[in-house]
């Protein structure tokens, strides 16, 4: 059945050398220590086992042989083979992370023969206004206009509050005077030479509440990420007050990645009507252990609250593995439930469809949205 990847980024079309490729298969900001390689990991072994045959190699070639074959094919052909082998019919692409290095939604739709939709990063949108010379007293109105304009095309927004201020922020809506004062201070610092990077809790809270007011899907980074994140401040339970305040809004809160807090996310998805979650990113990096993590997501959460994502960036292998390991893990979990308690095949199929694509289509209200490209093939028609 098709998959709807509700959170991912674009791929690079560059022909990657070894150091560039290895940088894309780790969340570390550092190269592997001398004499070692990032291929010596769950994700490295998964690439050599599962991706090599798609590129015309035997299973488990050496990393050098794998990368040589990748260079021989070229970045565009590697992308075409791996993306079109995923069975992903729809991509929701967050465009705020290193967007100048990767394909945009239209480019992804073409490379993957699929549909692609945009997700807007809130913090980046605010930073663009500051770079563009917006005055402090104009910021709230300008941000509202820009957000409305982007949401005319995009299907949701994302916040990286977990990286910038942690999830232990005050949950309530900030007052206008406080926002204006915080923006003024932010702009003064930028004028004095500080980077434009937004890390003010009052302003970020304003951005989040602007999204709540528009009743859109709001993605939050949760848990596992690169070395910039303070993992202990990324537990989704820290959002409980915010979820209480927004539960009667029309917004849907989408908890991304979640590992190692996926059980906590499952609890929140059970008790709050507007909360959904996934274990994207972790699936790739846990490789042969992904089955267990996927099964754990089905312990508490209602099945209509669990989503698929790859959180892939840059390397097309990450999309392929995200899809393959997710399908395998979900199928094995459902098979175990059937062995233990005789779950009917038709019910298992219905649950798999919900998690694979139906839940995301409902949560993001996709049925009435225009896609970046509507020329995908038969796999999309199934959805």
What does this structure look like?
This protein has a single domain (3-174, 205-381), classed as TIM Barrel. By secondary structure, it is α/β, with parallel strands linked by helices. The protein starts with a strand and ends with a helix. The chain contains 17 helices and 7 strands. Strand 6, helix 12 (262-271) and strand 7 (275-277) form a beta-alpha-beta unit. It has helices at 18-24, 42-54, 63-73, 75-84, 105-112, 122-131, 139-151, 161-164, 176-191, 201-213, 240-246, 262-271, 282-286, 290-297, 316-341, 345-363, 378-381, and strands spanning 3-8, 88-94, 115-121, 156-159, 217-222, 252-257, 275-277. Helix 2 crosses helix 15. Strands 1-2-3-4-5-6-7 form a 7-stranded parallel beta sheet.
């Amino acid at each position: 059945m098709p998959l709807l990847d509700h959170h991912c980024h674009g791929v690079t079309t560059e022909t990657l050398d070894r150091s560039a490729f290895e940088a894309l298969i780790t969340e570390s900001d550092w190269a592997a220590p001398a004499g070692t390689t990032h291929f010596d990991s769950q994700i490295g072994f998964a690439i050599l086992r599962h991706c090599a045959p798609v590129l015309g190699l035997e299973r488990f070639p050496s990393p050098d042989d794998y990368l040589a074959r990748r260079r021989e094919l070229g970045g565009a052909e590697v992308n075409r083979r791996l993306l079109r082998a995923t069975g992903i019919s729809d991509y929701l692409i967050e465009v705020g992370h290193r967007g100048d290095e990767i394909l945009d939604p239209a480019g992804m739709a073409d490379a993957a023969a699929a549909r692609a939709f945009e997700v807007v990063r809130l913090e980046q949108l605010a930073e663009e206004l500051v770079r563009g010379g917006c005055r402090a007293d104009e910021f709230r109105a300008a941000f509202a206009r820009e957000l409305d304009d982007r949401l005319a095309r995009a299907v949701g927004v994302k916040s990286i509050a977990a990286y910038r201020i942690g999830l232990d922020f005050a949950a309530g809506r900030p007052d206008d005077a406080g926002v204006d004062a915080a923006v003024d201070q932010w702009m003064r610092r930028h004028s004095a030479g500080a980077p434009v990077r937004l890390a003010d809790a009052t302003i970020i809270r304003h951005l989040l509440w602007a999204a709540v007011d528009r009743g859109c899907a709001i993605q939050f980074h949760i848990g596992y990420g690169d070395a910039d994140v303070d993992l202990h401040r990324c537990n989704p339970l820290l959002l409980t007050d915010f979820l209480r305040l927004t539960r009667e809004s029309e917004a849907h809160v989408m908890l991304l990645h979640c590992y190692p807090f996926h059980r906590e996310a499952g609890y929140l998805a059970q008790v709050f009507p507007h909360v959904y979650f996934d274990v994207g990113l972790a699936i790739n990096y846990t490789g042969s252990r992904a089955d267990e993590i996927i099964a754990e997501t089905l312990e508490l959460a209602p099945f209509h609250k669990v989503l698929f994502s790859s959180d892939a960036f840059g390397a097309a292998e990450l999309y392929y593995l995200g899809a393959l390991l997710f399908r395998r893990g979900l199928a094995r979990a459902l098979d175990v439930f059937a062995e233990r308690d005789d779950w009917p095949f038709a019910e298992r199929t219905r649950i798999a469809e919900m998690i694979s694509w139906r839940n995301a289509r409902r949560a993001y209200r996709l049925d009435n949205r225009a896609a970046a490209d509507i020329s995908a093939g038969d796999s999309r028609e199934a959805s």
